[in-house]
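Quick one: co-fold with 6-O-phosphono-beta-D-fructofuranose.
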Amino acid sequence: MSNSDKSVTKTFGILTAGGDCPGLNAAIRGVCRAAYDRYHMNILGIAGGYRGLINGDIRPLHPGDFWGILTRGGTILGTSREKPFKSNEIGEDKVKEIKDNYRKHKLDALVVLGGNGTNTTGYLLAQEGLNVLGLPKTIDNDIEGCERSFGFHSAMAVCTDAIDKLHSTAESHNRVMVIETMGRKAGWLGLYSGIAGGGDVIIIPEIPYDIKAIGRHLKERAKNGRTFSIVVVAEGALSAEEANMEKKERKKIRNEMAYPSIAYRVAAEIETETGMETRATVLGYVQRGGIPSASDRVLATRFGTFAADMLARGEYGKMVAQIANEVGSVDLSVPAGKTKKVPTDDPILDTAVAVGTCLGV
Ligand code: F6P
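Sure, here it is.
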């Protein structure tokens, strides 16, 4: 903890970008309260992620803006998926707009709260000479260099509650219920909520699934009197056959199948394979809504106040991260352009298997 109100950073801008999640406002509060109360910094709020920095949608934040927002879902700043380094048809130089606004508003630093896309843009802006500090936000928990991002725990609670609810209706109807979680190309959210909810089958992108293995597992359960089952499938999951295809071929096959989402396809494949009545549930955006869990409030606040201390020390070009269960930081090059996936030798996979979970193989 710093005990000086001296700060290298006098004025910084703050933005939230990418998918929203519970905990964003807790993190904003953590950064701003520490920066304002402890270091008397000037704070400029940037609306709508990087789009606000391009368009100059920037205004001063005062204590009334960041007090009382700890428990609020979403982000008071708004967000977007604007990608300034992605070239566009009209040839607008978004990076130049950003640099011009950064200077016009006399920013000493830019704090970006986001996932791997946001922190990748932050890294590229740091390469352009801006002083950038990233915070790891996403329900996917797929940010390289950070053990746990805020938003993940809150989404896991939503998914687990949904799985709990599906148990009773599955049992009443002797059905197989397939529930789809978010997580983009990583399986963290599906895996952890599947274990928390007692999923009988958990399918994640990192382990391409074999529908025959899943069928055998479900039929074995039925033979032992468990005539209902819960199958948790992460949205990025793919079959063993698809894993051997080129992306283009995979896309073509999926378009021909015309299932709205992977859960509906897996449900249809299970019915064909086993003859068991099967239904699909896609959780969608409820996983991103609501108020932050207590754990995410603490983690987001820790990340935020740690970032304020880093601003005071003039530490830029980094992303705050949970490392070995402590709050630290990594160079922005660490998450840039990467996705943290579930290692196939992660001990938690064996934990799932040890309690009888089928991982799709
Ligand atoms: O990155 C968070 C996330 O919710 C992913 O899990 C999901 O695939 C994606 O965002 C949805 O993106 P959008 O909000 O743009 O529809």
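If it helps, Residues 19, 81, 115, 138-140, 182-184, 235, 288 surround 6-O-phosphono-beta-D-fructofuranose (CB under 6 Å).
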